[in-house]
Amino acid sequence: MMQDGILKAISSDGTIRAVIATTTNLVAEARKRHNLSFTATAALGRAMTGASLLASFVTKQGQVALKFQGNGPLGAVMVDANPKGTVRGYVENPQVELPLNSLGNFDVGTAVGNTGYLHVIIDRGFGMPHQSTVELETGEIAEDINRYLVDSEQTGSIVIIGTHITSEGVEAAGGLIVQLLPDANEDTVCQLENNVSTFGTFTFLMRQGMGIEEILSRILQGFDVRPITEVLPLSFQCKCSKARFVEALKVLDKDSLLSMANEDGQAEGRCEFCNNTYQVDKDCLIELSDKPLAD
């Protein structure tokens, strides 16, 4: 299977910029870790792809976090990604399965819900993180990310994200964002609209064997596009660890720690983002209970 990757590019005339990513492997990893249904895989896969694309656009360090909180049965869809190429995420109700929609696609819009909010937190690695909230428009992930971009940056954008899943697993996943820059004119818009109308679907092109540069050239046909980065590998990667779990236990009072040690014989924690579990044994809990709380 082709390695996941992300690439940024700009047109030579300075009218558009783009970022494109393939995410098949990381979506497959998320599906396995969380035991996701088909519908949940499609939703979380699109959200993780979208977060990866946004992270490369809006920050050189730090991270971007997205929370889709709609009125659908999936509940919250949480993802975060950083420009170094790592992404993680989870859905509140991973076993939700819905019939295909009228187009024969996974009904992510109904699963997420079209009433609610998309919360976006951008941490640039310095200063206070910036948080924005927009109302969900369709729950279809790409359309709601596009609405966020239009509202927050006041610029025209194209957001295309897809996941193709069969009984054999995740066969293709990826997406792209194209944004108009200040020098864009009506001809630029018309050319992009024509390209989109003949583009097809992202995952179909992937399954035809097209690589990331070929797909980018197709959506930006008629433009002299120049990559401004190498293809950066993407992967599902979490920041959790046993050491972090132990640090979290340190905020508990002595009685709580001793209660876990004597009644349960251990403490166990599970990371929502990656589903890893961590265990701390009785001796470690007793040792933690003897340490004074930090000021």
The count of β-strands is 14
Mean pLDDT: 91
Looking at the overall shape, the CATH architecture of the largest domain is 3-Layer(bab) Sandwich
Which value, in Å, is the CA radius of gyration?
A: 21 Å
**In which range does the helix fraction lie?**
25-40%
The CATH topology of the largest domain is given as Hsp33 domain
CATH superfamily of the largest domain: Hsp33 domain
Report the β-strand fraction as a percent range: 25-35%
Shape: elongated
Number of helices: 10
Main beta sheet: 6 strands, antiparallel
Question: What are the segments in which pLDDT stays under 50 over at least 5 consecutive residues?
Answer: none
Q: List SSEs in N-to-C order.
A: EEHHEEEHEEHEEHHHEEEHHEEH
Number of domains: 2
What's the end-to-end separation, in Å? 50 Å
CATH class of the largest domain: Alpha Beta
Content-based structural category: alpha+beta
Question: Would you kindly provide a written description of the structure presented here, covering whatever features stand out?
Answer:
Helices cover 35% and strands 29% of the residues. With 295 residues, it is of the alpha+beta class. It folds into 2 domains: 5-236, Hsp33 domain; 242-289, HSP33 redox switch-like (CBS domain Like). Strands 1, 2, 8, 9, 10 and 11 form a 6-stranded antiparallel beta sheet that branches. The chain has a 6-stranded mixed beta sheet with strand order 7-6-3-4-5-12, covered by helices on one side. The protein has a two-stranded antiparallel ribbon with strand order 13-14. Strand 3 (63-70) and strand 4 (77-81) form a beta hairpin. The radius of gyration is 21 Å and the shape is elongated.
